[in-house]
Design goal:
1 helix
Length: 54
Protein backbone atom coordinates (compact mmCIF):
# COMPACT_ATOMS: atom_id res chain seq x y z
CA UNK A 1 0.00 0.00 0.00
CA UNK A 2 1.14 3.51 -0.71
CA UNK A 3 1.92 5.95 2.12
CA UNK A 4 -1.05 8.07 1.07
CA UNK A 5 -3.35 5.10 1.46
CA UNK A 6 -1.88 4.37 4.90
CA UNK A 7 -2.61 7.96 5.95
CA UNK A 8 -6.20 7.63 4.76
CA UNK A 9 -6.62 4.39 6.65
CA UNK A 10 -5.09 5.90 9.80
CA UNK A 11 -7.42 8.88 9.49
CA UNK A 12 -10.45 6.60 9.23
CA UNK A 13 -9.33 4.61 12.27
CA UNK A 14 -8.81 7.80 14.29
CA UNK A 15 -12.20 9.19 13.27
CA UNK A 16 -13.86 5.90 14.13
CA UNK A 17 -12.20 5.88 17.54
CA UNK A 18 -13.29 9.46 18.22
CA UNK A 19 -16.85 8.58 17.20
CA UNK A 20 -16.89 5.60 19.58
CA UNK A 21 -15.52 7.80 22.39
CA UNK A 22 -18.14 10.48 21.72
CA UNK A 23 -20.99 7.95 21.77
CA UNK A 24 -19.63 6.40 24.98
CA UNK A 25 -19.33 9.81 26.66
CA UNK A 26 -22.86 10.73 25.58
CA UNK A 27 -24.20 7.45 26.95
CA UNK A 28 -22.41 7.90 30.26
CA UNK A 29 -23.63 11.49 30.57
CA UNK A 30 -27.20 10.35 29.88
CA UNK A 31 -26.98 7.61 32.51
CA UNK A 32 -25.49 10.01 35.07
CA UNK A 33 -28.17 12.64 34.40
CA UNK A 34 -30.94 10.06 34.74
CA UNK A 35 -29.43 8.83 38.00
CA UNK A 36 -29.07 12.38 39.34
CA UNK A 37 -32.68 13.16 38.40
CA UNK A 38 -33.87 10.04 40.25
CA UNK A 39 -31.83 10.91 43.35
CA UNK A 40 -33.17 14.48 43.28
CA UNK A 41 -36.74 13.17 42.93
CA UNK A 42 -36.29 10.76 45.85
CA UNK A 43 -34.73 13.51 47.97
CA UNK A 44 -37.62 15.89 47.28
CA UNK A 45 -40.14 13.16 48.18
CA UNK A 46 -38.23 12.43 51.41
CA UNK A 47 -38.18 16.11 52.41
CA UNK A 48 -41.87 16.47 51.54
CA UNK A 49 -42.77 13.44 53.66
CA UNK A 50 -40.54 14.69 56.48
CA UNK A 51 -42.18 18.10 56.53
CA UNK A 52 -45.68 16.61 56.28
CA UNK A 53 -45.22 14.27 59.23
CA UNK A 54 -46.50 15.66 62.55
Amino acid sequence: MTPRRWLGLAGLVILGGLFVLAVTALGLATILCMGAAKVWQDLRAYVRDLSASP
